[in-house]
Amino acid sequence: MSTTQHATTCTGTEEELIDRIRTLAANYKGKEGSLIQVLHMVQGVYGYLPLHIQQIVAEELDLPLSTVSGVVSFYSFFATKPRGRHTIRVCMGTACYVRGGVSLVESLEKSLGIQAGGTTSDGVFTFEIARCIGSCGLAPAMTIDDTVYPEVKAADLPGILEPWYNDGK
Length: 169
Ligand code: FES
Hints:
- Strand 1 and strand 2 form a beta hairpin.
- The two termini are 32 Å apart.
- By secondary structure, this protein is an alpha+beta fold.
- The chain has 6 helices and 6 strands, in the order ββααααβαβββα.
- Mean pLDDT is 91; it is low at 1-9.
- The radius of gyration is 19 Å and the shape is elongated.
- The chain has a 4-stranded mixed beta sheet, with helices on one face.
- The longest helix is centred in the middle third of the chain and has 19 residues, at 94-112.
- Bound molecules: FE2/S2 (inorganic) cluster.
- FE2/S2 (inorganic) cluster binds at residues 91, 93-96, 132-136, 139, 141.
């Protein structure tokens, strides 16, 4: 039996996950304004919201798929592709931008072998660009999950990334 693993703690076969999603969404049928809440919970179960999962939510809530897809694409906290276990965000706010943010992005793209917005093929990192993260005095800054790294230089990257392959330990 095949087991589907997603970036969240929820595991199970694809059929089990879809059953849970159907039951969960069906509980909210006819409850106005519940779509975002349902999508959050479904993303928690499945890990992300690909089109076939959006279709199931639309069916269970009795909404057009275009309504569900519109909400998913509008909010950045909804993902339509699987995410990595850890999220790297490089700040491209003004201070970080002028103090080396661009070359930091380029160095990370090279180290990870992906473009900003992508996820590494081993599923460890999703790499994104962020707006100011409030550490402007320590620009250029980046974060991995909730850890802030100040004044990052390209040469620091191997040492910063390394522990995260072991989940930050
Ligand atoms: S501009 Fe990067 S932390 Fe503020």
